[in-house]
Amino acid sequence: NKERHIERLKEHNKNLKANELPSQNKDLQFNLKANELASQIGIIDGNSRKADSKIDKSGYLTFGPYVELLAGNYKFNILYESSQNNNIEVGFWDIAINQEVISQDKIYGTNSKEINLILQFTIPESSNKNIVEIRNYYNGTGDLTIKNLTITRVY
Q1: How far apart are the C-alpha atoms of 124 and 108, rounded to whole Å?
Q2: 141 by DSSP, 3-state: which?
Q3: Lowest-confidence range among 10-19, 35-44, 103-112?
Q4: Contact 110, 81 (CB under 8 A)
Q5: What is the rounded average pLDDT of the residues 121-141?
Q6: How does strand 143-154 pair with strand 72-81?
Q7: pTM (2 decimals)?
Q8: Segment 34-47, tens digit of pLDDT
Q9: What is the mean pLDDT of residues 6-34?
Q10: Contacts of 139 (CB under 8 A, 6+ apart)
Q11: CA pair distance 152, 122, nearest whole angstrom
Q12: Residue 101 exposed, middle or buried by CB count within 10 Å (0-12, 13-18, 19+)
């Protein structure tokens, strides 16, 4: 019957990796609050992770999520904030596939405004598993709050 079929589909989908979801889920997206990501430094502040030079040394404020993604084009969005001026470097982000950094750049202050840092990246065809990690490093200057990380497949 129809209900049993739906239950079997749900059970099947629950056991799939994110990149193996059925084709109707074309908008593959991971949306993680910063408090769901691993960290070396800082504190959890609601759903965010926050580092402040009065308390914290430099280190990775967030890293992860260690998701396996198929070859293709993706974008990531880091929602963050810092009270430092926008010409002051407060850290850097990088993206690694199988622990190899493929791209990185500086993170600047935002004058206490939320900023969306949005960048695209490509995972090349490979026979390996593609384990993706996006890291946000705080350099010990002023403060840095990471609020959210989103990874989305781009078609």
Answers
A1: 29
A2: coil
A3: 10-19
A4: yes
A5: 90
A6: antiparallel
A7: 0.81
A8: 999 999 999 999 99
A9: 55
A10: 58, 89, 90, 91, 92
A11: 11
A12: exposed
